[in-house]
Write a structure and sequence with these properties.
With 106 residues, the protein is an alpha+beta fold. It contains 3 helices and 4 strands.
């Protein structure tokens, strides 16, 4: 059964990178415990303060999660997967329009 592994952000830089999730043909995914960790790593990769090019890539950000099947999914798809896998750690009703947040898991 597919499960959510960790928080992840996808960035589209128009380049092909090795060792990306199976469904990412170009651009890159940064993983972390929480989404702010992913953003911090991104800033280390492109440099901060952002150059015009770094800001252009930053503006393509899609927040989501990495799954145990090595797929990047957005927050809404992640909520479906985590619910199906019974990974939600509380009894609060979640908003399908927002999707999953890492605090729902751990």
């Amino acid at each position: 059964m597919e499960k959510i592994l960790c928080a992840a952000n996808y960035y589209q830089d128009g380049m092909i990178h090795e060792h990306q999730p199976k469904n990412i043909s170009n651009g890159f995914v940064v993983c972390g415990r929480r989404h702010h960790n992913c953003i911090g790593t991104f800033a280390q990769i492109v440099g901060f303060p952002y150059t015009d090019e770094g800001l252009k890539i930053r503006n393509t950000e899609v927040q989501g999660f990495l799954t145990t099947d090595n797929l990047f999914v957005d927050r809404k798809e992640a909520l479906k997967i985590a619910t199906n896998a019974k990974q939600i750690n509380h009894n609060v009703e979640l908003d399908g329009n927002v999707g999953l947040i890492s605090e729902d898991l751990y």
